[in-house]
Amino acid sequence: MSSTTKSITEAEIEAEFSHHDPTIARINNGSFGSCPKSIISAQQQYQLQFLQQPDHFYFNTLKSSMLNSRKLIQSIVNAENVDEISIVDNATTAAAVVLQHITWSFFSSQFQPGDAAVMLHYAYGSVKSSVHAYFARAGGRVIEVHLPFPLCSNEEIVSEFDQALKRAKMNGGKIRLAVIDHITSMPSVVIPVKELVQMCRNDGVDVIFVDGAHAIGNVEIDVRDIGADFYTSNLHKWFFTPPSAAFLYCKRSDKGSNVHHPVVSVEYGNGLAIESAWIGTRDYSAQLVIPEVVEFVNRFEGGIEGIRKRNCDMVVEMAEMLVKAWGTELGTPIEMCSSMAMVGMPACLGISGNKDALNLRTHLRVTFKVEVPIYYRAPLEGEVMLGFVNPITGYARISHQVYNTIEDYYRFRDAIIKLVNDDFTCAILSN
């Protein structure tokens, strides 16, 4: 997808996001995404059409508009057939679709108690919970891949994943499911997903599900090249749709012939894409504005690819500026960053647990008007044994989206410098 119209100006970008709170340095696009005014306007038109004449909308607009959205997503992610693309609320819903399907394999005795699922320790919380709620409760065992952080290279990820596959296969164990993040949420790391999928194929893993919640609009997605059975990504995080919209790719195969939406509606049995397009009376407008989103991203030079490069280049530049100002380090090499980067925070802030990280995040929001997530990294055993003085235990996950300005990051930089100069520690917030 490339730009076909005159490039958007900075003034037009500012106008598209003028509804954002101007007092906040919002460097956390990763959590909830962002939606331009023109897309909000398009969404409201769909909402109004439904409210004006619901029957006409249901019979004459909804299905055809949803199909148009699915066709565009099919093209963007290089799916072979539009029937492989379903639109759901979010990646959590997609995980429920996949894991419910997996659970039936236990009930039908295709899978046996003790069969394994492998997933990253960094997997998003709701997806981890879904694996335990569906797979583990059905009798499966869950093997987590514990990745080091900070990370130095993809080889560390590949090595740890390989060891986890070996553990899962010990004593003749069978690996039924692999859940692989394309970009982990916290800490944020771009995962060599294609290589891990191929490793799973080589080891005979039955079902491979890639959670690319942060991926579309952030990194290139080619579902045929990646080769997983299922792939999901949120459209509202980095692809400018309103909440909530995501796609689920289901590879055409015997594995996908009996996959159903967890909400059973009158469309049950008509295929996942049709089931997902009607789960009862609700607001579908966020899922119908994909054509308008495509028009929006094509206003930028290079289209969505240009936006991805712009965001990645800027987030790396801002991350390097911050670590230089604070005397810290990045959590990953720059080639493992997307439109998000992990920035080490001064050790003297005393971030000693998840509660400290959350308290500091709140303090930055309330006192300095900076919105940014903070990740707590427990000191490594080697750091403790070797007596490292004040290892870095806190990392900020900064995002860059087209609406961000350099001043947003300068405000964050100066806020942390002030806290350091004032001898602030997180212990103060716990009192």
UniProtKB/TrEMBL annotation:
The keyword Iron does not apply. GO terms for molecular function: carbon-sulfur lyase activity. Keywords: Pyridoxal phosphate. Residues 36-253 form the Aminotransferase class V domain. Pfam families: Aminotran_5. Transmembrane segments: none annotated. PANTHER family: HERCYNYLCYSTEINE SULFOXIDE LYASE, L-CYSTEINE DESULFHYDRASE. This is L-cysteine desulfhydrase 2. It comes from Capsicum annuum (Capsicum pepper).
